[in-house]
């Protein structure tokens, strides 16, 4: 099946080909002809299946007869309205419309809260055919008479289940009352429960129902694993996993905003550049963090479930659940950020004993067992192959070869290795580094651990940090005492 066989216009086919899409995904093959025919549709499909193009392409095609280059705002009424639960998803859907509609003189914009309303008002004043919006900001604009929805021909409720979860039902009802009754309505939802069915019955007119295999059943491309670990040990395990598995881009989910903040701080302290998005952050900060991560300028993005749906980051190789979500369905959404559009992915969950029941529920939902691992596999293994060759006498010789410090990503002499990775991970490095003759490492010391310069003070501080004694000993190169974890 090709896109051309779906009856799409040449202008759209050219834009699709520019995106490198060679054939429609399952949801696209099923939804595009039906939406083109003008029917109402309910579709059970998740983000990552290509559903955005599944509705954007036929909407654009149906608007081609209305496309015009007139400067008059009256010639550009809102004809397609797409509602999404989150700002990030709204921005993403908007970008998709821009990409697919780039060869058409149709105007498109996005409105969401958390940013200045002024520029949005100005764009709406000039007129747009396609409007992507979150419900709250849309209603603000309606109340301020910046927008008229009486000519909407197609309405899309994207991620309808999420909108209901987020309490948007009253807003949605208000918006529906502003739309013409003869419109086409499309409802996309990852799950269909009674509430969604009720909404679709009141919203849609004899809809055609489209279902595609749920990701939970097709997630074979995602390698899933669970690490059974105490809550206290999660941070250390996380850092060790990122380093040992050499994860270059990771989306980490935390359960709460405070937890996410703590994690961000900890990862940054461990020299792992981390961005963060959650509901307490300004929209500006959220967009910037996402942008840096998407561009690969930040290795790690820590997020609460606000990011679990809708985010489309090209070829995201790994998702880590630092804490399991309270609903098993959210697990599927979270790990759906990886293994997208046919690519393989890695989904790692850190599971504390108190989360065992949640893991059971997830396994029931996805109808398969997740591989379990013991953190000792990572935490107790020697991080450096060269370490076994190091003198264990308490005296260290000059380095014979350089090795890579997986935490700092630089090469340091072998004698600086330390095997105690169950404790605070930076400390052993910096500790050993005090007596280094390597200028780079000296810089690290002077900027990061100047308080550890005096041996006795260092001894006490490090002992407190490691919660165990450290033993001083004489080095060949130095008269001062050197500390290694005892
Ligand atoms: P969505 O489910 O709409 O968020 O899309 C997920 C990802 O799939 C996006 O990165 C799209 O660019 C990509 N995509 C959509 N349709 C296709 C297609 N037919 N072939 C390849 N990739 C696609």
- The number of domains is 3
Q: Which radius of gyration do the C-alpha atoms yield?
A: 27 Å
Largest sheet: 7 strands, parallel
N-to-C span: 66 Å
Strand content: 15-25%
Count the helices. How many? 19
CATH class of the largest domain: Alpha Beta
Mean pLDDT across every amino acid position: 77
Report the strand count. Answer: 18
Small molecules (ligands, ions, cofactors) in the structure: adenosine monophosphate
Please give the CATH architecture of the largest domain.
Answer: 3-Layer(aba) Sandwich
Describe the model:
- The chain is α/β, with parallel strands linked by helices and 486 residues long.
- It folds into three domains: 3-211, Rossmann fold; 222-382, P-loop containing nucleotide triphosphate hydrolases (Rossmann fold), CATH 3.40.50.300; 384-466, no CATH class.
- The protein is built from 19 helices and 18 strands.
- It has helices at residues 10-18, 26-36, 51-63, 87-100, 117-126, 135-143, 160-165, 169-176, 194-203, 215-218, 234-244, 257-269, 283-294, 328-335, 356-366, 376-379, 426-433, 439-448, 455-466; strands at 41-44, 80-83, 108-111, 130-133, 154-157, 184-189, 208-211, 222-228, 250-253, 274-277, 300-303, 318-321, 345-351, 371-373, 402-405, 410-413, 470-474, 481-485.
- The protein has a seven-stranded parallel beta sheet, sandwiched between helices.
- The longest helix is centred in the first third of the chain and has 14 residues, at 87-100.
- Bound molecules: adenosine monophosphate (AMP).
- Residues 21, 24-25, 28, 47-53, 312, 340-341 line the site of adenosine monophosphate.
- Adenosine monophosphate binds next to helix 3.
């Amino acid at each position: 099946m090709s896109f051309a066989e779906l009856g799409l216009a040449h202008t759209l086919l050219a834009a699709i080909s520019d995106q490198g899409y060679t054939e429609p995904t399952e949801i696209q093959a099923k939804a595009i002809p039906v939406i083109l025919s003008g029917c109402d549709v309910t579709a059970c499909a998740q983000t990552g299946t290509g559903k955005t193009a599944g509705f954007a392409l036929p909407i654009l095609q149906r608007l081609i007869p209305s496309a015009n280059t007139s400067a008059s705002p009256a010639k550009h009424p809102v004809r397609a309205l797409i509602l999404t639960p989150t700002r990030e998803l709204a921005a993403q859907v908007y970008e998709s419309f821009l990409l697919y509609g780039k060869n058409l003189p149709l105007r498109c914009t996005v409105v969401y809260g958390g940013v200045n309303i002024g520029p949005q008002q100005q764009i709406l004043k000039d007129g747009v055919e396609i409007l992507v919006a979150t419900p709250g900001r849309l209603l603000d604009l309606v109340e301020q008479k910046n927008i008229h929805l009486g000519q909407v021909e197609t309405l899309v409720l994207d991620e309808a289940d999420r909108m209901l979860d987020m309490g948007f039902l009253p807003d949605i009802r208000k918006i529906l009352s502003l739309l013409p009754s003869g419109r086409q309505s499309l409802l996309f939802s990852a799950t269909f429960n009674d509430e969604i069915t009720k909404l679709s019955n009141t919203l849609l007119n004899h809809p055609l129902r489209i279902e595609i295999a749920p990701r939970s059943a097709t997630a074979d491309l995602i390698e899933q694993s669970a690490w059974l670990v105490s809550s206290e040990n999660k941070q250390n395990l996380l850092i060790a996993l990122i380093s040992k598995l050499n994860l270059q881009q990771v989306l980490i989910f935390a359960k709460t905003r405070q937890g996410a903040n703590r994690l961000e701080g900890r990862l940054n302290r461990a020299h792992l550049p981390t961005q963060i998005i959650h509901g307490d952050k300004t929209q500006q900060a959220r967009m910037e963090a996402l942008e840096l991560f998407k561009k690969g300028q930040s290795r790690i993005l820590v997020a609460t479930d606000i990011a679990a749906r809708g985010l489309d980051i090209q070829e995201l190789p790994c998702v880590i659940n630092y804490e399991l979500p309270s609903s098993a369905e959210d697990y599927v959404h979270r790990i759906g950020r990886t293994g997208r559009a046919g690519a393989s992915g890695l989904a790692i969950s850190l599971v504390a004993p108190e989360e065992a029941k949640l893991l059971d529920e997830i396994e029931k939902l996805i109808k398969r067992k997740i591989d379990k691992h013991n953190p000792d596999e990572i935490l107790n293994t020697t991080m450096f192959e060269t370490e076994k060759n190091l003198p264990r006498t308490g005296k260290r010789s000059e380095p014979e070869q350089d090795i890579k410090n997986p935490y700092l990503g630089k090469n340091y002499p072998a004698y600086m290795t330390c095997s105690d990775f169950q404790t605070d991970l930076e400390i052993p490095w910096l500790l050993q580094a005090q007596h280094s003759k390597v200028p780079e490492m000296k810089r690290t010391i002077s900027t990061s651990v100047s308080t550890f310069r005096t041996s006795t003070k260092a001894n006490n501080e490090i002992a407190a940090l490691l919660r165990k004694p450290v033993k001083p000993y004489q080095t060949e190169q130095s008269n001062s005492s050197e500390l290694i974890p005892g």
